[in-house]
């Protein structure tokens, strides 16, 4: 009877140790995946969201008279804004071009110095 009790306790202890080893094994295999997700969030996702928010704010703050650069590299001055279209005056002749609002890359701080000189 005593030997049966000892065998039962040894089997229960071994099963408990195996269950603990299994739990540690699962945690050890999931931890690198969770760590990679956290690293990707801080290196890729968070900065991109911040940049998108800045671009959205810049596009919302556009006003006539702003000097802009389009995604195609055209520099001009905003002459009017209607909903999602922007009319831009380009060159010395102030040629009007119409762009979508999303096509504006940046608002330039300083005007171009050679704006009135024709390109050769």
Account of the 3D structure:
The chain is an alpha+beta fold. It has 1 helix and 5 strands, in the order αβββββ. It has one helix at residues 2-60, and strands spanning 67-70, 75-82, 85-90, 95-100, 104-107. The protein has a 5-stranded antiparallel beta sheet, with helices on one face. Strand 2 (75-82) and strand 3 (85-90) form a beta hairpin.
Question: Which properties best describe this structure?
Answer:
single chain; 120 residues; alpha+beta; five-stranded antiparallel β-sheet; 1 helix
Low-confidence stretches: none
Please state the average pLDDT score: 83
Shape: rod-shaped
- According to DSSP, the number of beta strands is 5
Question: What is the H-and-E element order?
Answer: HEEEEE
Q: Note the main sheet.
A: 5 strands, antiparallel
What class do helices, strands and sheet pairing give? alpha+beta
Query: Helical region count?
Result: 1
Residue fraction in strands: 15-25%
In whole angstroms, the N-to-C terminal distance is 107 Å
Tell me the strand order in the biggest sheet: 4-3-2-1-5
Helical residue percent band = 40-55%
Query: What Rg is obtained from the alpha carbons, in whole angstroms?
Result: 32 Å
Topology diagram in text:
Elements: H1 2-60, E1 67-70, E2 75-82, E3 85-90, E4 95-100, E5 104-107
Antiparallel strand pairs: 1-2, 1-5, 2-3, 3-4
Short description:
This protein has 1 helix and 5 strands, in the order αβββββ. The protein has 120 residues and is α+β, with helices and mostly antiparallel strands.
């Amino acid at each position: 009877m005593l030997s049966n009790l000892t065998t039962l306790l040894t089997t229960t202890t071994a099963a408990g140790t195996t269950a603990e080893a299994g739990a540690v094994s699962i945690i050890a295999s999931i931890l690198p995946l969770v760590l990679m997700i956290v690293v990707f969030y801080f290196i890729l996702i968070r900065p991109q969201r911040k940049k998108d928010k800045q671009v959205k704010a810049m596009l919302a703050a556009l006003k006539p008279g702003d000097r802009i650069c389009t995604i195609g590299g055209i520099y001009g001055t905003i002459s009017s804004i209607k909903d999602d279209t922007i009319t831009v005056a380009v060159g010395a002749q102030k040629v009007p071009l119409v762009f979508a609002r999303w096509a504006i890359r940046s608002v330039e701080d300083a005007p171009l110095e050679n704006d009135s000189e024709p390109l050769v």
